[in-house]
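Fill in residues.
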C-alpha cells in the first residue's frame, strides 16, 4: 500500500508548477522576457512585473531565459524562483542627422504568399539575414521593418530584434537594449514598423532581423492538448502566424532549444514532398 501511495504522489510532485521572477542587476523587473523549456515542450513570457509561471515544467527541466540586450541564461527549473539577467554592453550609435533630402531603398523582396509559420505554444524567434553589400552602400540606416503576417486575434503583439552575426555566421548579440514591440491587426497584413528613431546602422558584416513571439494573453488563440511526463496538459496556441516566401537559398535561422539553427535544417525530409526552401517574409526599407 505504501509503494502504491508513493507511485500516485510522485507524478504530481514531478510536474509541480514552476514560477519565479526575472530581474536585472539592479533588481528591477524585466518584462517581456521569453523563457523556453529546453526540450521545446513549452515556454512563457514574463509579465509587467517580471513574473512568470510554467505549469507543465518539471523541476528537473532546464529553462532558457532570453531578453534583448542580456546574456542568455540557462538554469534548472527548480532554481529559478529569482533569476537575475546580466546585460552586455551595446555601443550606442551616433546621433543620426538626416540630410535635407532622404533616399529610401527596399530590400528582402518580402511579399504575400500562402505559406505560414506558427509558434504553437513556445516563444520562437525567426530571423532573416541581410547582407551589407554595394547595393545599399548609400542607405545604411533602417527606416522600417516589413513583416507579413496572418492573425486570428484582433490585436496581437510581436517583438522585433536586431542581431549581429558571429564568427560562425549565426545570430548573436542584440544591437538594441530596448525592445521594439509591434501591434499586429487581425487578418492578412503587410506591417510597416517604424524604427528610424533607434539609429540602427547595418554592421559591416550584415544584420539579422528577427520576429520574437510573446506568450501574452492578447496573443492567445485557441487551447490545445499535449502530453508530458505521462500527463495530459491543456495549453494555448499563440498568434500571429508569420508568412514565408519561397527562395532559392535560405538566409534565415530559428531560435529553439536555446540555440539558433539554420532554417534549411527544417525542410521536409520526405522525398515525395516539394523541395521548397523558405525565408520569413521580412524586408527592410533603408534610408541614408
Amino acid at each position: 500500500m505504501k509503494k502504491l501511495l508513493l507511485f500516485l504522489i510522485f507524478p504530481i510532485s514531478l510536474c509541480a508548477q514552476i514560477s519565479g521572477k526575472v530581474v536585472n542587476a539592479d533588481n528591477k523587473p524585466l518584462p517581456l522576457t521569453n523563457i523556453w523549456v529546453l526540450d521545446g515542450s513549452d515556454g512563457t513570457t514574463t509579465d509587467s512585473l517580471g513574473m512568470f509561471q510554467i505549469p507543465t515544467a518539471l523541476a528537473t527541466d532546464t529553462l532558457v531565459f532570453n531578453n534583448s540586450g542580456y546574456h542568455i541564461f540557462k538554469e534548472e527549473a527548480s532554481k529559478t524562483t529569482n533569476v537575475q539577467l546580466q546585460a552586455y554592453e551595446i555601443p550606442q550609435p551616433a546621433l543620426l542627422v538626416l540630410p535635407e533630402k532622404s533616399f529610401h531603398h527596399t530590400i528582402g523582396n518580402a511579399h504575400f504568399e500562402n505559406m505560414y509559420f506558427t509558434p504553437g505554444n513556445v516563444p520562437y524567434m525567426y530571423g532573416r539575414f541581410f547582407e551589407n553589400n554595394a547595393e545599399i552602400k548609400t542607405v545604411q540606416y533602417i527606416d522600417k521593418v516589413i513583416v507579413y503576417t496572418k492573425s486570428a486575434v484582433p490585436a496581437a503583439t510581436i517583438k522585433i530584434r536586431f542581431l549581429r552575426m558571429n564568427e560562425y555566421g549565426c545570430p548573436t548579440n542584440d544591437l538594441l537594449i530596448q525592445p521594439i514591440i509591434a501591434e499586429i491587426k487581425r487578418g492578412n497584413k503587410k506591417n510597416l514598423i517604424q524604427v528610424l528613431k533607434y539609429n540602427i546602422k547595418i554592421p559591416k558584416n550584415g544584420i539579422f532581423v528577427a520576429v520574437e513571439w510573446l506568450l501574452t494573453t492578447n496573443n492567445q488563440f485557441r487551447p490545445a492538448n499535449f502530453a508530458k511526463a505521462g500527463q495530459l496538459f491543456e495549453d494555448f496556441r499563440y498568434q500571429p502566424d508569420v508568412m514565408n516566401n519561397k527562395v532559392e537559398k535560405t538566409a534565415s535561422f530559428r531560435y529553439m532549444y536555446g540555440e539558433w539553427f539554420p532554417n534549411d535544417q527544417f525542410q521536409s525530409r520526405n522525398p515525395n514532398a516539394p523541395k521548397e526552401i523558405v525565408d520569413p517574409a521580412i524586408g527592410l526599407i533603408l534610408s541614408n
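The two ends are 76 Å apart (CA to CA).
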